[in-house]
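User: Fold both of these, please.

Assistant: Here is the first one.
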Amino acid sequence: MEESYLLNLPVELLHHIFDFCDAQTILCKISGVCKKLHSIVNQYHRLHLKLDIHKYITNERSIPHHVLYNRVVSLTTWWTARSEDQKETFISALLQCKRLCHLTLRFIDDTSLQSLFIKANNIKLVSLTIDSNHEPSNTTFEAVSLFLEKSSIQKLCWKNLRYKAEEMLWPKQCKLKFLSIGYCFYNQYASLLHQLPYLETFQVMNFFTYNNSMHVPSFNSQLTCLSIQYCSLSIEHLRSLVLQTPKLCELKLTYYPDMFKSLMEIYEWEKFVRMELSFLKKFQFFIPYKFSENDPVRLDMIIAPFRDSFWLNEKRWFTVCDQTIETYEIDKISIFTIPFIKPVYHSNFGNRFVRCGIASKDNIYYINDQPEDEITLDTVHHTLPVLNLTHKGLKDSHLQILAHALQNNQTTIELNLFANKIKALGTQYLVEALLNNTTLTKLNLDGNYMGDEGAKHIADALNTNQALITLSMATNHIGDEGMSYICKALHKNITLKELDLHQNKITNDGAISLSETLQNNNILEKINLAYNCIGDDGARNVAITLKKNPTVLMVNFNNNSITVPEPKYLFDDLQQDMTLEELDLHYNHIEVVGAKYLADALRKNIVIESASYYFRIILWFFSQTLRTFNFCSSKIGSAGVHYIAEALRYNTTLSKLKLDSNDSGDEGAKSIADVLNTNKTLMAVSIATNNIGDEGMSWLCKALHKNITLKELDLRQNKITADGAKSLSQVLQNNNTLEKINLAGNNIGDDGARNLATALKTNTSVTILNLNSNKIDITGAQCLYDELQNKTSLKKINLENTGIEDNGVKIIAEALRHNTILEELNLRFNQIDIAGAKYLADSLQENTTLKTLDLFGNEIGAAGVYYLIEALRNNPVQSLTELILYYTSNREHESKSRKSKARENVISLLRNSAVFSQSDFEGDVCGYCEALKIAERIRKNLTSHENFNKKYIGSAGAQYIGDALRYNTSLTILHVNINEIGQNGLKYLASGLKNNTTLRILNLINNIISSNEARDLCIQNNRIGDDGLTYLSSILKDIKTLETLILSRVNMGPIGTESLASALENNTTLSILRLNNNRIGVQGIQSLMIVLQRNKTLVEIDLSNNQIGNEGTQIVADFLSTNTTLLKLNLGINQIGLSGVKYLGDALKKNTTLTSLYLRRNEIDQNGIEYFSQSLKGNQTLKQLDVSCNPIGYIGIEYLRDLLKSNTTFIELKIGFKYENYQGNLVNYTNS
């Protein structure tokens, strides 16, 4: 055979191919194909390797030393070693890498950094990346600087380096061309460029401008590319910055949120770029802007300056302005260049939220769900054909933006605005867009606040719009006036076919307007006026019109206070209407007389297809248009049923009849039986909940001897006993038409079950039998066993709540071993425990046809689940696809999506689950199954964020989660709130997280953990106390990636706080710490602040309600005086008075980072607020201050007003509603 073509390629070309492969593929896969490839791989010396040093040292993932030393040019390392010896061992190995050019150090500590670069004399690096989670010390910088002086390194990325010109000197011989750091001060920028004369590219994450002056030495900077994240530079600062870099040709700016306070500032900034930055070859920016409801915004006006010839033609810098239509982002607008640059603070990055925007290139709006980072010039105009904006919190101002986007839209055909906050003004904006729209065919405005005025605006659109086919305005407070506007418009409109106005305030007058419209409108087909108040007169007026209208097919008058005898008019007209297919009158008190009139109509109307509908009770905001004639719950009694039955003797089209809950009794059943004797069209009859007993059952069964069309019979919730079941069994021996029988909620007992079982042995048509709640015990189960042993036609049987218990299940299970027909078995609520589950499990190993087994509401426990899944694993056919162990609904009207969700417990997952093992078998079955699925996802690294609150997984579920966490390398957020995991569950989770390096957020709120149980992990509302905190601290010390820690309401005192402080002493990742509602006190706050004084990552601390008083506040103030990272501090409810607030005021004179301070419900009076206000006059960083519920008085308010005159940085100042009657102009001040 000829040699492979690949092996005939030159070695150099193969090595070039290897350049695009990862090291594992090259070394483990390609190398093992054949000897020749093995030899070629051994000659390849350009490997790019990723290495966990702990696994390398412990040989868990063995890489030969000679490969590392001689063949690796690029190395990315994770410093997860547990001991200093391991780190030193790896450093020694690293120093022997002869070909290494590119080195990345992740999670490396200061000590290892110093040790590495003090010894690194022979490594000739080209690029170095240091990605640690803490700010390096000056000593560490000196060690790296010394290495830079000796090496020819050209690229350095140091994520958390905070450059301090007075303490950090770059080496004179440094040849760096590319530098990326975390922090740099504006006044030190020039000094940095002066020390790095060869620098061409500079990237900085945070660029501080606290000191407005910049020392400008005389030098010639080579900088060509500058990139700033978290940019807060004013135009003056930016101008000064650019002057230092005459060769600059590329600039990237990502502005800080709230940097621009008005559109005018954005316009001024644009003018500056156009006039003074025209020398740039490449310019990218991202500007977030938050607007208020009183600040009307048009995206096309915002983008207008960026459509200047300078932007589009001269520079070809294309800009996009868009808005994310999400509840919590809805007031934010983004202006950015394409290609998009990702802001580090951008929480929606990569998510698919509906966006509305406009591009500068052609000034065309778009509406899509494309993430910003995927927007290109080719894709920016993609617009969704179906736009679903339900529950988005949209207000009128947001509709203005949306309307502009829709005005020239030629793509969207369906718009759903259900459940927002749209009023008349917002409707007006929308209508302005629809006047000339030619594509939108379906509009849903249900659940808003349009009122009559909004309806008037919609009517204006209908006057000219020639595209809309379906319009829904349910639940909008529309009355007769609004109805009048709509109806006048329908005189002219020639396209609208469906109109839904249910759940409004329309009365008889509105119905009159509709009837006048229907006299001339020959387009409208479906009208829904359910849950209004049209009454008898309104129904009569519409009915008179329907006589002549040839197009209306469906009218819904459900719940409209229609009474007897007024339906006579409606039904009289129904007799002459030869087109109406659906009429819904349920819940209208039609009663017997009304039923008589209806009967006459049915007798003469030969078009109606259905006079029934499965009765539903749905919350108004979920209701949809009901499409059938419903006579359930209409109080017509036996006499009313008699009239209906008389009419059906002559009706030749009705196929379904539903007369549930009408108290028709045995006489009513006799009337229905008379119909079944002669009727040739009825296929389904439902007369549930009608007090029908054995006599009525007898009449029905006699009719079924003759009837050859009925396939479905629903007699649930009646009074049928064993005698009635006997009558039915006699019918089933000869009737081969009936397919579905529902006897749920009767009382047929064991004798009835025996009679039915006997008949079903020979019957060949019945496939579904429902005996739910019929008190069948072991005797009845034995009869069913005999029936199931035979080859009957029965495919589904419902034995829910029949009381068969374990002994009955044993008999049923034995039958399942041999049955080859049954596909679905419902055994809900039968007090089946572990023994019953074991019987079923044994039978499932042999059964080859059962697809669905429902055991919800039993007590099989986790052990029962274990038996069932083990049985499924051992079944060679594996026919069972649905095992229901907790609530799911099977109602026919249920949506497909909900059914799909309910059936997520498809057995293929559990059958093949790698996480299943013998456990302690504690916990809720539902939660247990959920835990199995979630654990499987975690184990396979299929998720980065898991939220399974209120699943009650118990300790057994926590065991699987913990076991899966051992193998996970992707999970960053884990919420396990309210799951009753207890002591054992905590132990399992803690064990799984012991060596985890990715998890950032762990939430374990409310898990029934007391102080003597909290040995491993515990967060919020668990009352673990100081003893629990002592145990918890030992775990926290080992978690290297924790960013958020919430210990609210855990009964933590001074001792527990001291333990916590000890645990956090070496933490370098924590950014949010919430300890509110404990009893930390002065002693505890002292322990905590000593440790936090060294922390360089915290941005938020919540210490509210902790009894710290003035003395504790002094300790916090000392911390604030020197801290440079904290942005948000909450000291509410801490008995802080005059001296405490003075300490804070003095601290804020020095602090230059804090932006939010909460002092709610303390003891600060007017004297305290006077001192505090004076202290804040020089502070230029604090933006939010809450002093509500303090006794500051009106004089204190005046001090705050005076503060605002001199301090221009405040965005929000809360003083509380106690002063809402104050006559000044300051109550909860918001600077918009």
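And the second sequence with its predicted structure:
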Amino acid sequence: MSSTTHGSAQDFIRALKASSDPPHTGSPSKIKLAQNAWDDNGFYLPNKGEVIVEWLLTRFLKDKARASDVNPIMDTRYWQLLSDIVYSSNRTQADLTGSARTIKSWLLPILSRVPIAPIVIAFLSLLSSIEHDAQLVLNKLVSRSIAVLWPIAVPKFSPETLLECLAAVLSHLAALQFTRLNETVESLGAIPLSIVSAYRTAFANSSNKRKIYSTFLQNHLLYWIHGMHLNTGDGAHLQEAVAGIYAAGVETMFGVDVLRSLEEGKCDPALKNALAGTLAPNASTLDVLPRLLRSFIQSVRRHKTALFSQGSNRATDNVVAQVQGAGTAFYAMCDELVTRAGNIEPMRIWETRIKCLAIVEEERLHSVGNDPLTQILRENGDTALEALRGSWEEQHAQRVDAAMEIISVLTRIDYDIVSPTLPSIWKRLILNLQAGPDDARKAFGLVNSSALFSFTFLDRLTKAIHGFLTPGQVQDVTKLVLQYLRDTFKEFKEQDKRFTADEGSGARKKSRRSGTTVSVDGHPNPELAAVTFASAARAVGLVVGSLPLHIIPEEACEEIRSLVGDVHSHVIPHALKGSYKAMEAADRRETWAWQIVAAAALRVHYELSTARVLKLELGSDSSATSQLRIFLQHDGTVPEFSVEIARFLLYQVSSDPDQASSVFDNVLHYLERHLDNETSWSGKTHRLTPEAGHKQDECQQGSQGVNAANFMRRMLHDAAFWELPNVRDVFMTQIAIQTASVDQVDVEHLLSYPERKSVHADIATSVPLYATYKTLLHAPAEYLSRSARADFLQRARIADVIMSRPEQQQTEPRLLLVVREFMRRTFMHMGSVEHQGALLFFHHLVKTRLSAEFDDPSLNEFVSVTLDVITMYMSAFLKAAQRGDEDAVVSIVEAFSRFLEIPREQTTGAFQELCLLRFIETLTENYEASQFNERVLSLLQRLYERMSTTSCSRMLAVLSTSAASDLYHHIDTLKAWSRTLAAGRWLQKEVLDIVLEELYASGNGDGNTGLENVVATYIAAAHTLDLDGETS
């Protein structure tokens, strides 16, 4: 391009300085003139780059306030030209400008005249007004230019100017799209980090930090808080930028000059008011408070020498106390702000409280003399305690968890803060009935599933009682819990008496709803009183059974035993008698409350009787035992009462063996009536109702609950069970009885005359037989005697034959699968399949019909199991043929030959074909032709010829409709052909041997080509044979 395009150098300068753009009507725009001048090496202008750069920066500064669509700062052409000129990495520009000066030498005067800070601020402010994709393009151009200009210009900037640049970065980050945050920040390159770094350096050297601090609080704090909530994810640039921004804010707010100006024990009111002002428009301020608290404490500790180094306060203890005092003041401010937030976002408020308390604990702000902090912590404890109200309601679950976390942290900080409120906390945790749900039965379930009755907590409490009670506390604690049991039982009886009086003792009045509620006028509610008594009974058994009696004198131990015996005699018998009377009453009065009380009484009796530390002999009335056995079979007995009755009865028979048999019968009869495989237990403490049994605990989802089937399965896999000879013998005897029903069937008669209808159709299809053999699958074969294995195998074969007969259309396939799996495992353990009628049963297996009721996985499993059993018979028959007893093998080969004579369309998918292929596989892989006599070999020869004819026909049919490359889609045909080739090779067919050796030799070549050659050779040979296999 010639210089005439631009005119003279003076014309070019005048054009750039013209008041209008373009400078003349019809002429190019100024940016195009500048770009052409820069690109035209033939256009001579002294210091051309300097001229154009100064014009660009001046244009940016002059038009920075214009709208984004006409603002040159948002025009990529300007930044592209600026980048082309300045991005030279400080190399000399002699080849471009004729000057040997470096970039810095000529840029510094320009940047002194034209500051770039306002340009950067305008750029960041306008950036969010354009499309995202346009932002990415522009950001890359700007970042290249700023990377060169910023280091040269920044020493001239004041801290206030850099604060404005930082504010522009914060404002821009707050406006970014959440989904493409990392990508946008990465495109900005070093701009955010350069600004943050420059500001931190300038602020550290500033002599007017308080003014900058005030400006930051008044104008930029809200955007700074927004920046702390950016989701940095995996973006390294964004993570580094956010970390730098946070550090810049902390240094501004908690610098030593700012901290030195604070009054002792107080926070800066300006900071407090600024943070409070951000709460209304931005609830996320709550999330920043814990970080600020930690940073404030760390800053005070870092500068403690400068802050607390005067006068007598230089003592170490005083310095620590002053640091704690400063931290307490800031925590008090945070707590006040959280309280002032109200209910903007309740869970965010709870999380902020927890995080702040955790920092108080970690930073060890609390000390014995720190009364202001103690008061605040107690107020937090009261707030958490209040939140436990209504804890039984599902919608308050998160709030309750947060409240419990606060109480836990407070306990770790200082137990004395929480100890005065512990009784109230316990009541909330077990759903104190005055604050709990109106329905007593719902309350009972919630109480038993509460944290205080979890197994983990009870176990830890037991160890704590035994390990930490002092000798002087043992008797007092015992008296306390025993008296509470007396009082709650007395209260229950009073409630029941008043309730009965209100109901009337004559004919039943108007029916009341189950689970009577306590009304505002104080109507009695014995069900709620029963729940209270049940909770007290749990506490008595736990505490008394864990007492460390070994640390107190024997006289004190005797006194405790006497107290326990006295309470036992005044509570337990009366509770049981009351339940008997209520359940036997003719007025059909609701008995739930009395049954819960009786269940709790039985539990206390059992726990006191079995407590090793007490060594008590607590007797029981024989008539009570008889009555309880009756109630165990009663349909109206609640599950909780039934469990305790069973526990009581089983414990009693340990001292009265004569009653053992009848008691076991009662318990097992109850289980047979009420326990099924759908009733499960998640492993958590809760009521034993069908709803609770079927509802799996949330933390147990994905894991299998405990039910009767699982328990039985674990027991059968436990070696300890099988090592109990008496139990094992009784168990196996019962199993034998369950399967004895098929002994009356003559299985050989059924196999010999399959066309005759069986009169035993329903014997082998019974559920007990299926369940019995399924149970035997879990029993180790080593624990079955030889005679027992023989009996179970014989009965399994009989059941198999009956279930496989044509009239058994209703037989479920799973029954047959279980029986055959048992035979497979037992044969594998025995290593032999010899038994009477083995050949007949083998032919029966081969004729298996594949049921359409099988799904694909079950069908594959059934076929695999059946083929495994058949293979064991085949191996046994082949071994017998090796010894000269070839009748079974002859029968098998003849049967397969007859099968091959059946037209193909009638045998498609038949199980016999799979058996034939398995027979050929077993024969060719495990035996040699020389091991069999001529009779067997001749039959095998004819079987092979028939297989050859059949396989050849199938292969021709496949090849006539499919290409050679599609043969793998006919896997059944290929398998049959493969077994045919194997049989021919085994019988020493020379032609096929040669072809196969050729195939083996081409193993590293093209597999499809080798396969096509073999197929072609085989078909060519097949054409020389007639249908009878003779040479034509």
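Strands lie at 680-681, 706-707.
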